[in-house]
Amino acid sequence: MSVATEARPVFGQGYKEALGRLDERWPVRAAGFRPPRPARANRPSAWRSGADGAKMRRMRTAIAVASLCLMLTVVGAPAAQGATYRSCRPVTDPYAGTRYAGTDLRRIRALRVTCASARGVARGAHRKALGLTPPPSGVRRFTWNGWSVTGDLRGDSDSYYAVKGSRRVRWRF
After folding, report:
1. How far is CA 39 from CA 9, 35, 47, 133, 145, in A?
2. Higher-scoring residue by pLDDT: 121, 64
3. Domain that residue 120 falls in
């Protein structure tokens, strides 16, 4: 038959002939040859059963847990140290026309807060603090708009610390 007159098989037809040609190329496969499986003792431990398999599974679990703990320790350590305070501009002369005129709220530091919010907290909380009577201990504690504020009045300059959840603001007066 010439190439022009040879009919090509339609999809699904002639597959047995194709399989026969494969068998001619790989006679070992045609004979049904399969490589032997390794003996039971030579298999990987995941295939083992019984006491040896349980012991291996416990060891793998312990190693996985230990490596996970190590990874969390290594990865978690920089995250705890990575939280640094941001320096913000001072609030200049917030009490003009009073006996505190010319004194700034300075060294404002913000953690997990924008500088605009930190400066607002310092301004508002300090205004409230000035209206409170100083305690005999010299440490003033109060709340302002949900912020827990602690002011240390001892020493030459007053230092304040405000906390709201994980957010922190510090400043000096």
Report:
1. 46, 12, 11, 87, 74
2. 121
3. 86-172
